[in-house]
Amino acid sequence: MKRLIIMLLIASSAAVPTLAQSKSKAQKKYDLTIMTNKEQQYPLRVFRLLRDIRDKFGMRQGQTYSVLKNPNTGLIESAERITRFSCLVDELKTIDQDFMADEPFSYQILHLLPGNTQKFDIKVVSADGQRSSTLPIRTEPTQEMWYLATKNLENPQLRDVYAIVWETDDLGIEAKGTIYGISSLRPDLYTKNQDASKNTFRIDGRVGNDLTDSLYVVYMADTKEELDKLPDDAFIEYMPVVNRHFSFSVEIDKPKVGRIRTVMPDGSLCHLWTNLDFVPGETYHITTHNGYYDEDLDYELRVGRFSGKSLIAPQQKSVTITGDFKFVDSKDDKVADLGRKLPPEDEAKTNVIVNAIEADAQIIDETFDAIKNTPYPANGVQLESLYKKILTLNKSIETHFQGLVKVAKDNCLSPNEQVEMYKFILDMYRDQNKKLNEASSFHYNKSAQKLQKYITSQIEKYLNEMSKL
Fold it and tell me: Model pTM?
């Protein structure tokens, strides 16, 4: 069932013009083509205007559609439909008059013009008040925004929000923006002070420029063991990505363990995920990238994996920080320790392999520095050769590492010891991924794209191998 809902969330704009298509009694409130006395007091001009723009000019990429229902009553607790669009500016010429015509049917209306520096968010709260998220809809002073909030037709506890945000090109010919249709608990009924709540855990997320993710899901359990046993469809919440931002909050009375997974374009779940300690009264700040994420180091040190209190990594000792964050034992030292457990001949072989990998990695670091220091406009041929050089060195590292894997298997090293070996190579690839993202922000070409695919495939490959141990 949840897989079906996932597919709806990332469905194309061929989905119906309202929050639901069925004309059944339970969903009739979202089909406003038949007007009742109640509906005559509804902002239908705005509704139909935004529906028409979405149907004619809505983009498939990045569209989200979600409905959260009470499992006991079947009543809708919150709903979201977010669609990006692109059209000629002339197609928006009636926006001002349509919003102003429906002003009598709203309890809040707002118009922000380009040049106004005010940012604007929409808080989405479920009907029971237990789950909430914040959608940043106006993020730049170059954007124009119309926003209207009105009472939901059927549920007096809910409010319906219609908003459109866009900006025009330099010639004033084309407009690109986003349309929002939100149903959620009325703000005046949401009496909990979430900012001061001691029981609220939050995720404040950003999506890196190297990703096009549009949706995540969240899992939660009391222990790591229980979390690992959860089926794929046991997630508790959706986190749609809006303007490269996603968020989540939940009320908990004790620390729990959580997991974030990406929903792929075909509706399947990514086989990689991120595990976090969910701690009451805390906020985890995260930025996702292709194959890795920027962790919230302050959080991890205070209450997370390196605090000595973690439910995710209970055996991880707390660390003392002096200057830049470093582990007391580096991965290189741990791999060297593995070598000392081997027969002399294999120990020597291990040392040679590790030294060769480190030598290649050093040259790769220097090459990335050369790419970043290449002046703009860049010499395309020179950049191509630099990226190709890094790819060749990575293939050399792969050959060396396979020799290390063979030594480990020949000597029947324990799964924990082999995990340390895989962490060694994964950390190296993740470091390269970060450097590639930094370099690509200045210079990006086909060779850089090919290198990105190779590094990502290596990370996925060794994560998969490590999971088998």
Answer: 0.39
